[in-house]
């Protein structure tokens, strides 16, 4: 309310703006010619110096509401305190209109007009405030309300308003349909729906409805708001068309009709469902062909399927490299192909694709096992073969590409070229990881045909190298004498060493041990305990381990080439004499060696001494009941008793000497104990232990 008092002076020009009360006033110069514009729904207020509202108003301004109490004073400067009139006028859009109440209280007179038609008439001079409420119906659209107040004499006060009646039993007028609708679809794939605010004074808000193309609007709104816009963040991204309308509703619950449909076509980012049934093609055995089938998808916008294959499962990567159907979708609900026989497990999945390129998640996985029948991509390039003193040496360049399962190159030797049938193949090397190999001793006097082939871990060969013919001459010249031979007597044998031979055809060394037989040296090679053949040495040292009992030996180390050519002692191989250390026990330092029922002693490097009985009784006829084992003690020069055993029910006996000294010769004696309590003579043996 803008209160005018006697103290206020009407300025020639007045501008009044009260934002919170929605007041905007403009006064022209001179009260008699006042021209004021007040923004609806603010009242335009005019003051008259009479009760007939005649002539030019003395003052005009804007008032946010009618609620004045002037008492017995004048309502404004230049006006009388009695016999004056005040008029409030407002013109506004009432929207759909409807039932309103006009509550008033006044002293003195008040009349209310709707579009010039009187609706309230309290027109008399009173000494107390009179009140009244009048119910009216305001039609839809724009209308003018005018409130005329007069004071004849005495105190003056007035209060009046116009209010919508919002009871559902009274108000049955629906709000007007909202206007000015607008719908946009933004880059975030959200719909922005807006409209113009309704004019109804009893408006409660708006209800937004959405429907899918081909369906009807439901009874439940998508959203309810008091705003004039709504952002729909729930739109599915499936390429469908959705329609929107908005309806206004008032405080009595009346709802307007819906606005004209506004539509939006959503972006399609909804992928089809993953195909089902692919995993049923799994096989538990080896396969050479894959046959997949699945239940066809039913999406209306389905374009087809993508089929993926990988040797890595869990899960199969949906990459272009793994996709088998290229850039175009596979249009059938089955797929067949021959499997690469690489030994890998192949994993297959299928996805569904729509016409906009949206791809589903992967189906279940079908597994297929294969045998490796595919050779490696590796190839020995620029291969050559040349004979020299070492044999036939092949060289080649490393393959430009390699397979994960490549294990090396195999060198093959043939007796005929590839063009001739019935040739014989000899594998002379395999697992070569480098780029050279020497065939040390191919049969001489013939032409051999060589080839190098890359091989994988399943034994499959790749593309062979060029074939290399070599006419092999061979040789019959032995390597030169080995130099620098030493022979040193040790407690557990003879330690040998020699200089390495630089003969290019060297294959191994052979060690001969010579003993005197009837005054002549007889040479025999050292024997391999496993093969029982002459031992082939590749190192330049060896311990000829044997009991140190003072014997004399003569050794010769001989170099042997790949063809077996070698010198002999008679043809120039050098020899080296050596006499063993003598670690035999002193005479009389223990049980005597003599006639005993104990059979031959035997044993090994693990310190085990074994024996059996040659006779069940001693020389006196008393039965054997047990055994005693003695070990020679070089420090005390006596045989220490190390074990006593009863005979029992077995037929052979043994003792393991865990305390046996290392790197020396140990002598043992075993005696038999007889039933009469006597001990027989001993059987003796010696063992040379490892260092």
TrEMBL record:
An MF annotation (GO) of this entry: hydrolase activity, acting on glycosyl bonds
Signal sequence span is 1-31
Q: Where is the Fibronectin type-III domain?
A: 376-480
Q: Where is this region: Disordered?
A: 255-280
> What are the residue boundaries of the PA14 domain, all occurrences included?
38-181
Keywords carried by this UniProt record: Carbohydrate metabolism, Glycosidase, Hydrolase, Polysaccharide degradation, Signal
A GO biological process of this protein is: polysaccharide catabolic process
Q: PROSITE patterns this protein is in?
A: FN3 (PS50853), PA14 (PS51820)
SMART domains associated with the record: FN3
Full protein name: PA14 domain-containing protein
């Amino acid at each position: 309310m803008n209160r005018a008092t006697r103290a206020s002076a009407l300025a020639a020009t007045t501008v009044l703006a009260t934002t919170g009360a929605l007041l905007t006033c403009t006064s022209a110069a001179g009260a008699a010619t006042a021209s004021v514009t007040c923004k609806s729904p603010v009242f335009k207020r005019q003051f008259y110096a009479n009760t007939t509202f005649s002539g030019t108003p003395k003052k005009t301004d804007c008032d946010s509401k009618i609620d004045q109490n002037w008492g017995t004073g004048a309502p404004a400067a230049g006006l009388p305190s009695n016999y004056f009139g005040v008029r409030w006028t407002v013109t506004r859009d009432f929207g759909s209109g409807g039932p309103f109440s006009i509550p008033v209280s006044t002293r003195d007179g008040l009349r209310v007009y709707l579009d010039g038609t009187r609706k309230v008439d309290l027109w008399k001079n009173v000494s107390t405030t009179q009140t009244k409420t009048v119910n009216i119906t305001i039609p839809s659209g724009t209308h003018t309300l005018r409130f005329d107040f007069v004071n004849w004499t005495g105190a003056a006060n007035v209060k009046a308003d116009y209010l919508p009646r919002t009871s559902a039993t009274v108000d049955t007028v629906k709000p007007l349909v909202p206007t000015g609708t607008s719908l946009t679809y933004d880059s975030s794939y959200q719909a922005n729906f807006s409209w113009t605010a309704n004019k109804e004074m009893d408006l409660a808000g708006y209800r937004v409805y959405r429907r899918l193309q081909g369906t009807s609007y439901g009874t439940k709104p998508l959203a309810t708001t008091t705003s004039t816009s709504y952002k729909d963040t729930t739109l599915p991204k499936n390429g469908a068309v959705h329609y929107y309308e908005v309806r206004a509703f008032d405080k009595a619950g009346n709802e307007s009709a819906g606005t004209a449909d506004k539509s939006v076509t959503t972006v399609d980012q909804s992928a089809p469902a993953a195909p089902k049934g692919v995993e049923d093609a799994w096989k538990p055995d080896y396969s050479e062909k894959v046959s997949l089938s699945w239940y066809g998808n039913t999406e209306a916008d389905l374009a087809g399927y993508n089929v993926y294959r990988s040797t890595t499962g869990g899960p199969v990567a949906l990459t272009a490299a793994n996709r088998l159907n290229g850039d175009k979708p596979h249009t059938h609900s089955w797929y067949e192909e021959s499997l690469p026989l690489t030994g890998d497990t192949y994993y297959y999945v299928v996805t569904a694709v729509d016409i906009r390129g949206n791809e589903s998640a992967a189906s279940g996985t079908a597994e297929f096992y294969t045998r490796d029948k595919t050779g490696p991509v590796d190839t020995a390039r620029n291969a050559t073969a040349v004979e020299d003193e070492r044999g036939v040496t092949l060289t080649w360049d490393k393959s430009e590409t390699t397979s994960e399962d490549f294990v090396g190159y195999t060198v093959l030797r043939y007796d005929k070229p590839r063009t001739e049938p019935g040739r014989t193949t000899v594998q002379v090397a395999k697992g070569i990881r480098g780029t050279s190999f020497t065939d040390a001793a191919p049969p001489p006097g013939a032409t051999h045909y060589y080839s190098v082939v890359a091989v994988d871990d399943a034994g499959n060969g790749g593309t062979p190298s060029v074939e290399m013919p070599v006419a092999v001459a061979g040789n019959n010249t032995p390597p030169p004498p080995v130099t620098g031979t030493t022979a040193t007597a040790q407690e557990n044998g003879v330690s040998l060493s020699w200089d390495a031979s630089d003969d290019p055809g060297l294959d191994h060394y052979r060690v001969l041990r010579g003993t005197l037989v009837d005054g002549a040296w007889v040479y025999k090679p050292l024997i391999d305990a496993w093969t029982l053949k002459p031992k082939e040495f590749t190192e330049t040292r060896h311990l000829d381990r044997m009991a140190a009992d003072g014997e004399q030996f003569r050794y010769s180390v001989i170099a042997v080439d790949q063809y077996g050519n070698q010198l002999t002692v008679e043809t120039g191989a050098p020899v080296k004499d050596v006499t063993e250390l003598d670690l035999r026990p002193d005479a009389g330092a223990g049980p005597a060696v003599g006639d005993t029922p104990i059979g031959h002693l035997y044993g090994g490097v693990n310190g085990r001494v074994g024996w059996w009985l040659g006779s069940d009784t001693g020389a006196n006829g008393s039965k054997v009941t047990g055994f005693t084992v003695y070990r020679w003690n070089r420090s005390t020069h006596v045989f220490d008793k190390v074990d006593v055993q009863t005979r029992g029910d077995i037929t052979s006996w043994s003792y393991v000497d865990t305390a046996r000294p290392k790197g020396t010769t140990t002598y043992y004696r075993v005696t038999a104990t007889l039933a009469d309590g006597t001990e027989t003579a001993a059987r003796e043996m010696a063992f040379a232990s490892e260092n």
